[in-house]
Design goal:
2 copies of one chain form a homodimer. Chain A is 46% helix and 21% strand. Chain A is an alpha/beta fold. The longest helix of chain A has 24 residues. The interface between A and B is large, with 66 and 66 residues. Chains A, B: Pathway: Amino-acid biosynthesis; L-proline biosynthesis; L-glutamate 5-semialdehyde from L-glutamate: step 2/2.
Chain lengths: 421, 421
């Protein structure tokens, strides 16, 4: 019990320090913030060996625990990866500062001037899994937008993250940004996470980055407002009027380009009329690309190597070379399926029928809806946002790929000379 | 236990119906929505007697329970008040439709067109206390912005709200808006509220309207995203360089114009130098306006009729003709006090010193910060927003007075001709 309270008190102290630091950070100039990012970048490169040594500890523990290859790959650092982290920070330094932008400015009849201006959120709580790159990326985006950050990374990357934060802290000593603006929660205790979830006094927003269960845990347990990111159970609907080449190209791209990312396709919904005419070439394409089909009853008739799909297949992301296939006899069935199983991330229709396309784009409730294009474009980089905090799958504050502006809020500055109502 | 499950199932069914109705509602034209609002307005006027009869039941119960006069006043309806409700709806019909607005539109090098467009949130859950006007106002704003609404009013207004919703439902029969777009939770059971708090599948946002404890209950228990509104523990800081007339005018206006509203002032922070010179006239002014002073130790030396202020006074709204007074010897002390006790609603400085004013406007973390003006201007009507859903005291999605655009989100519509990455 004592230990639990200690952990909570420690995290709360970090919250207070982060909040205090955010006041100073929020007043720095763009140049001061950019200079700091460049200094952190340099120090990461200079100290890459220290970071790699700490990374080794995590990797050894991971091996002992028998983690999967994909997991180990995300965890593993190299000199090249660290140089990439540093370059990422230098890119963020080059982006436009999202704060202190006047959104609107008007004067009431009584002479009171109203300026609506962007300001930093204050303190961002970042909760993520075993990707040490998030430690650097999130810190860069937070500092550039004038926010303090509290980092809570996965326990399997604790040594790597700790080493990275040590470098960031010593770099910050050489800058105008207070060292306290970057807080790292060392405890891997559940109580530490719970404290962060409910620290409304000091934390302005929580951003979970990771799998569905992590995100769900944050949404269900946090009283601090949450920016939901990431889970993409994306569908491609191949309409009866779909162009065959476009359909095949998009299926292959959306499924195989990077199967493990959130904007990859997970379910094909196919109009039966189209399938009757094109099942051979589709089947060949899927087989040649080693895509495993999990089909509904009708799909099993067309796809010779398919296995039966169940609730699990419709509801979850494969994040792998597998796809669920559902056959429908009209658009409404497709819309109903997407409504039931979609995660409001990215949904696409392939059709040459403009009216059907319009109906799909209007009626599907998702951050991004596509007509005749791959869902893979739901990405801050692809859309030209410069850097991405994540892809919001919620409706409040920010939806879809989030750039730096998502880390700001607004403030009304009212300037008068004695106005009363 | 059986009863609890029944209540939960009923509310979930209402959620599903509201969600389904929102699909149709979201596709209606502005004209169809406006026509519906005008028809509801007419029907409210036509059926005012029915509503007043039901209101009588609530008023009698309220009398039996010995509710305060202010509470009874908010609960009481009259023909005139119902006509005002109807006129409010007609005003909302005249406002610009916030949906289907293109925020940006650009084409990637590969030819993929990206349109960022505003769309309704979907389903709004409104949780409020015993003000039957919220039933009408919130319904009007929700429908105009293309959203379904689930209403959960206070139990002491249950008959009035129920009668109003009956009229709205029969009015909707004559319109293109599905009747199911307006759901009213009849159960006053806690389980009904709890079900609404966690119905993430069907409800897109919860908006609590009411006192601090209601809002806290929603924030602490909801997994559905919340738009926090309302609690305003607002401060006026009278700087050493404050103009006496401006200070007195603003103090009187911010405290006495409407003491029970959230943008009224609750604490005066006064620079000791200013107070030494002006305590006589300030004291006279406060006494003449029947404003009771709760002062800190130093304030008690200056304000002859003051009572000592404690933690309760600093932390809470009086919503009455009382004000807490704290004496400081510099701006930083004032900023620290506001940081500790402010609710991020509206904060004002009175000073002729431009540098001090700038520091205050930059450093105070609130939705609205004022220089030489009354905090009473934090109001959608006063700022020209036309109608107000509430005043957001949180930082995500919307901050400060919220007009119709706060009830929308965005969607990226991507139109291609086979683009892949």
């Amino acid at each position: 019990m004592l230990k639990e309270n200690d952990v909570k008190a420690d995290v709360e102290k970090q919250g207070l320090l982060a909040k205090k630091a955010s006041k100073k950070l929020g007043q720095l100039t763009t140049e001061q913030k950019n200079e700091a990012l460049n200094i952190i970048a340099d120090e990461l490169e200079t100290n890459y060996e220290k970071i790699l040594e700490s990374n080794k500890i995590d990797l050894e523990k991971g091996k002992e625990k028998g983690f999967e290859d994909a997991f180990m790959d995300r965890l593993a650092l190299s000199k090249e990866r660290i140089v990439n982290f540093a370059d990422g920070l230098r890119q963020v330094a080059k982006l436009e500062d999202p704060t202190d932008k006047t959104i609107s400015n008007w004067t009431l009849e009584n002479g009171l001037n109203v300026e609506k201006v962007t300001v930093p959120l204050g303190v961002i709580g970042m909760i993520y899994e075993a990707r040490p790159n998030v430690t650097v990326d999130a810190t860069g985006l937070a500092l550039k937008s004038g926010n303090s950050i509290i980092l809570k990374g996965g326990s399997s990357a604790i040594s790597s993250n700790s080493a990275i934060v040590d470098v960031i802290h010593s770099a910050l000593e050489k800058t105008e940004i207070p060292v306290d603006a970057v807080q790292f929660i060392h405890s891997t205790n559940r109580e530490a996470t719970q404290a962060l979830f409910t620290m409304n006094e000091y934390v302005d927003v929580l951003i979970p980055r990771g799998g569905g269960s992590l995100i769900k845990a944050v949404v269900n347990n946090a009283t601090v407002p949450v920016l939901e990111t990431g889970v993409g159970n994306c569908h491609l609907y191949i309409d009866k009027d779909a162009d065959v080449k476009k359909a095949l190209d998009i299926i292959v791209n959306a499924k195989t380009d990077r199967p493990a990312v959130c904007n990859a396709a997970e379910t094909l919904i196919i109009h039966e009329k189209w399938l009757k005419e094109n099942h051979k070439i589709l089947n060949e394409t899927l087989i040649s690309r080693k895509i495993n089909v999990h089909g509904d009853e009708k799909a099993l008739e067309y796809f010779t190597d398919a296995v039966p799909a169940g609730e699990e297949d419709w509801a979850n992301e494969y994040l792998d070379l597998a796809i669920a296939v559902k056959i429908v006899s009209n658009l409404d069935e497709a819309l109903d399926h997407i409504e039931q199983y979609g995660t409001k991330h990215s949904e696409a229709i392939i059709t040459e029928n403009a009216e059907t396309a319009k109906k799909f784009l209007d009626l599907v409730d998702a951050s991004a809806v596509y007509h005749n294009a791959s869902t893979r474009f739901t990405d801050g980089g692809a859309l030209g946002f410069g850097a991405e905090i994540g892809i919001s799958t919620q409706k409040l504050h920010a939806r879809g790929p989030m750039g730096l502006p998502a880390l700001t809020t607004v403030k009304f500055k009212m300037r008068g000379n004695g106005q009363i109502r």
